Amino acid sequence: KPKVEKSEALLVTFKTKKIAYRDTGFLKTAPNYANLQIFAMGNILMDLTLNDSGVCVNSYCVDKESFNRKYLSKYYPDNLLENVLKGKPIFNGANMQETESGFIQKIKEDGKYNITYKVSNGKILFKDRLNRIIIALKPIKS
To answer: Rounded to two decimals, what is the model's pTM?
Structure first.
């Protein structure tokens, strides 16, 4: 496992065609690595790991392209989920507008996706209206 640079407790919403969670989570990140664990009542509901070799969900591992095709959208770039989890720009910064506390991107291609992505004060919200995907990460203040 890589040396973790950042670790934080979050309120996580992760909703796709095949996954739907809204619970407490823990995100650990390092270069080329992200691990998101979602918990309910002390049990791990989802353990999602991304690294150079691909994506693992509860020990089911595939390459990033296959993961996107199965859980997100086949039209997404391979690095989209890792960038969202880390609060980095997606689609190489397309349509990015700086805001006072972060940035927003609105990216739309007919028949493929209709994305609104906001990063602000540590909060991350990714919404794709066309594919009905929501990924929201909100730090839990202790």
So the answer is: 0.93
The tokens for 114 are: 């209709």
Q: What domain range is 87 assigned to?
A: 6-139
- To the nearest 5 percent, what fractions of the chain are helix, strand and coil? 15, 55, 30
Classified as helix, coil or strand, 86 is helix
Classify residue 38: in a domain, yes or no. yes
Residue at 1 is within a domain: no
Q: Which two tokens stand for residue 4?
A: 């973790």
Please state the domain count of the chain.
1
In a domain, 44, yes or no: yes
Sheet with 60-62: strands ordered across:
60-62, 54-57, 43-51, 33-40, 20-30, 6-15, 133-139, 123-128, 113-120, 102-109, 96-99
Give Cα 98 to chain centroid, integer Å: 20
Kindly state whether residue 88 falls inside one of the protein's structural domains.
yes
pLDDT by residue for the chain (142 residues), tens only, comes to 677 788 899 999 999 988 899 999 999 999 999 999 999 888 999 999 999 989 999 989 999 999 999 999 999 999 999 999 999 999 999 999 999 999 999 999 999 999 999 999 999 999 999 999 999 999 997 6
